[in-house]
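Model: You mentioned two targets. I'll fold them one after the other.
Researcher: Yes, keep them separate.
Model: Target one:
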Amino acid sequence: MSAITIEPAFAWPILSALSIGVQCFLTGAGVGKARKRYNVPYPDMGSGRHAAKLSDEDWTQFNNVQRTHQNYVEQLSQVQAAVLLAGLFYPCLSSGLGLTYMLGRFLYTRGYRGDGPSGRIPGFILATLSYAGMIGTAVFGSLQLLNYI
């Protein structure tokens, strides 16, 4: 039976993956505050009966807040997997990319909530580039492991 040896440096990608999950959770807490502020209870996700009673401005603001969290949830599992897989080969680089992703998500959320969809662009670019870096790092490490490069 084979065993997997986990190097101590792999703790950094683990901490990055956990931190990304915590940041997503905290982004969701902002939606809870918006639900209370705009009186949009569950299960309304921004297009239901309660949200339909909002003014256009309030509806847009609530949906901007809600969308930042929903978008994060849509990406969460892929990003956490990528930071961990890349971390098997290059733990410090992977961790740095994970932290860069978190900065991108922070800018994305702040921009989207403050300025609407166009405000998310700088954070989107940073988060996407860091995610692509994680994927590239995992692929490169895998190809090295297979002795293709």
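Model: Target two:
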Amino acid sequence: MASIAENISTIREQITKCAVASGRSPDSVSLLAVSKTQSAERVREAFAAGQRDFGENYVQEALAKIAALPLPGICWHFIGPIQSNKTREIAGNFAWVHSVDRLKIAQRLDAQRPVSMAPLNVCIQVNLSAEETKSGTSLEEVEALCAQIGQLKNLRLRGLMAIPAPCADPVLQREVFRPLADLLNRLAPHYPHMDTLSIGMSDDFESAIAEGSTIVRIGSAIFGPRAQITSEPTPQQ
């Protein structure tokens, strides 16, 4: 079995290959290691291999790791569904939030971001499948939500994020990602920091890069299969 360091090296090589094939600089795509359910020691191993950005889905689990890993240059991203009663902890401990999907949550994050910290980088999560059980705002609602979030001084609107339904066909994967990429390209000129397309996971990141992804979120391809945890309840709407 390959080590975490070997897996990271392999993924970075694949990112470079995909970016070059799409006529892009490899530096235009960042690797976010999804460390949910992984131990602090496994995160430390990835850090030792040069990885700096880590994504977490569960607040309490993440806070324990953040406290255990005060490493220079480490950057924590929250990528899971957001409960209203968790916004203060998220606002005070993360550099990025990829999963803002409604104004109420954005307003709470803005109000609770410590003044001693830089503005919180946020992406709007978009529901590409229109499934009611999935988190995310609709494509049609994104523009209005951007305008509202853009007025919040303690947030920095960085872009869009999506988690599409699983699909093994690269052609269909790209078709799903394309409307989001087109929307980002249309909105970006109106927001000074809007440069991020957070799409692509272990099974579809090649297609995501071809469609313009700037952050790929990779978990199992780095850390291996993850354990299941049920410690945090279903997010409140």
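Researcher: Noted. Anything on target two?
Model: The chain has one domain: 4-223.
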